[in-house]
Amino acid sequence: MWKDSETELDFLDFDYLINILKDIIEDETLLPSSVGVYGDWGSGKSSLISMSMNTFNKDEDTVCLVFNGWLFEGYEDAKTALMGSILDKIQENRKLSKKAAICISGLYKSIDKMKLLKNGVKYGADIFLTGGIGTITDLTLNSIVSKVKDKTKDVDTDGIIKTIKDELSNKEIRQNIKEFQKSFAELLKETKIKRLVVFIDELDRCSPDTILETLEAIRLFLFAGNTVFIIGADERHISYAVKRKFDKIEGQQIDIGKEYLEKIIQYPIRIPRLNSKEVEFYITCLLFQKDLSDEEFKQVINFLKEQKQIKFLDFTLDYTIIHATLPEIGEKVKDSLAVSKQLSSVLANGLNGNPRHCKRFLNSLVMREKMAHYKGIEIDRKVLAKVMLLEYFKSPLFRKIAQLQSSEKGKSKEIELLELGELTEESELRIWKDDKWVKEWCEIEPKLSEIDDLRPYFYFSRESLDEKFDTSVKKLSPKAKDILDKLVSKTKVGINEAIKAAEEINDYESGEILQSVFVKIISDTSVDNDLFKAFIEWGKTKEILYSNVLSNLSGLSGERINISLIPVIKDFMNESKKITEVLEITKKWAQENSKLKPALERSFKNQGE
């Protein structure tokens, strides 16, 4: 299996992006500077920046720091936490001269004053009105901490309050920012740091307030010393945080989030989504890592990179190329090459070429192989991969096929008819006979109908077979979670915002969101009208979701459907053009609910003729 975090190995063809980022960092004429490495959640931002920063490991003139604002959230003010972390890193990496020590001491004191100002309102009532001492130590002002220490009971309260008032009213506060910038530049010069590189990670996971505090801290340093700030984030999240803060400005005609970000970030670098060939290469590299020894892996990767350098746009991964040059290695990786080719197109389209999602798919694949091994069962990786594609993108069909093969001892005639494209109107899988994604999936080798017993492949996927057991939220990106939250908010504004954001996430996450909403619907004793409408509206956003909507609707009893939902269902029918399928479902509901029957017949009269 593979660690779900950044890597120092480049399987994503990031070499040109790494070099661009390195060039910006090394160019002294650009200092101080700020770089935005933008990309979707899981696109490889942290890996790209980590690989770039590693190129400076042996450069004594450069100090690199990684700051994760998300770790400090809720514990410390992000602005002062970042500033303090920078000073800590300098102190850790340099032996300070007397002048530098005085300089850094003054900078720490400036940060303490900023903390005091930040927390003044928060703690003011407790300190000045009640004289409370319990919270005063949180201010971390050196002059205060030295007073309280371990003698909270005997402390001079009046003395503490006077100290706070003196610090807050000190004229030095008004000049604090300018002096901080000047002192910081002097510190870098005194410690012989030509370049200070600060990588801000996980910023798009933070709250809007934390994001803004961090950006404010960066702005403070942009006018001081030889600093490079690199922000790895989804720029949409950062823009949203700014926009949310200033959305009440009257007469605002511009995208203030975008404008603010463009002023802070001087050099944006955007990570492109992986195409099918790039996904194939990425998956191949991951699989080779497990198939081969370290030396063999290094040998084949270097060979493939040389081939890519020569052919570039025309490079194709092929068993014959590897086998011709490295025959022993070629035999070892033959199956992995077949699996990567099998998965690449579907994952590139369905997951928008997202490396993190691809890695998680492979981790699930390997985990199930290991489970089978521990049970003494041998399974074919290519068959398992094909079954898992169905589980990821068409979970209702996955559950239906699992049910069919289980009742027929692992070999179902319906699966054969599905793969041959010969399903009839009476077939149990008829809802999917015209589904474009399913048709393409059926063309992928191997054919499931040719497997003697499919039961082992579904046995180790049992957690996905219960439609009432929803694990999808754990797999979603922050953006997808936000969309799901808005859909289940049951507010018109929330649902509309979710629908508008549909194109910002991949097909896999769209399906997971649809299923999560449906799980909430069936978890209640009665169908929630607003939740049902959100389910249908979301199901209309992408064609790949149509058959999933139909399958879920067919599983609902007519007893749970009320008259007010009929127009919503009819609207879905007209937009998806799934007239035959919807009419069949409404016919079933009419039989199950006699009170609903007249309304259904009136609403769907003359449809399908």
UniProtKB/TrEMBL annotation:
Positions of the KAP NTPase domain: 18-369
Looking up Gene3D superfamilies in the UniProt record yields: P-loop containing nucleotide triphosphate hydrolases (3.40.50.300)
Please give the superkingdom of this protein's source: Bacteria
A Pfam family found in this protein is KAP_NTPase
InterPro entries hit by this protein: KAP_P-loop (IPR011646), NTPase_KAP_P-loop (IPR052754), P-loop_NTPase (IPR027417)
Identify the PANTHER family for this entry: NTPASE KAP FAMILY P-LOOP DOMAIN-CONTAINING PROTEIN 1, NTPASE, KAP FAMILY P-LOOP DOMAIN-CONTAINING 1
Indicate what this protein is called per its UniProt record: KAP family P-loop domain protein
The organism is: Clostridium butyricum
